[in-house]
Amino acid sequence: MVGFLIATHGGFARGILDSIELIAGRQERIDTISILHETSIDAFGKELTDKIVELDDGEGVV
Questions:
Q1: 33 phi-psi bin (left φ>0, alpha ψ -120 to 50, beta other)
Q2: C-beta separation of 33 from 51 below 8 A
Q3: DSSP assignment, residue 14?
Q4: Of 59, 58, 61, 60, nearest to 7 (Cα)?
Q5: 38, exposed or middle or buried, with CB in 10 Å at 0-12, 13-18, 19+?
Q6: 33-62 pLDDT, tens per residue?
Q7: Would you say 4 and 55 are in contact if contact means Cβ atoms under 8 Å apart?
Q8: pLDDT tens by residue, 7-30
Q9: pTM of the prediction?
């Protein structure tokens, strides 16, 4: 199954996922990541890469 990663500024990504789950129920292979003012670009890049690897079961990640 294809994984999905929602990446946004601030808490918007979590709000999107909360709305999806309110309508469609709990989802598998989907996660969020947000960049904040205090987030270093290097830390964000590592977290982004780690989450992509975690979500990818061989089908890819959108």
A1: beta
A2: yes
A3: H
A4: 61
A5: exposed
A6: 999 999 999 999 999 999 999 999 999 999
A7: yes
A8: 999 999 999 999 999 999 999 999
A9: 0.89
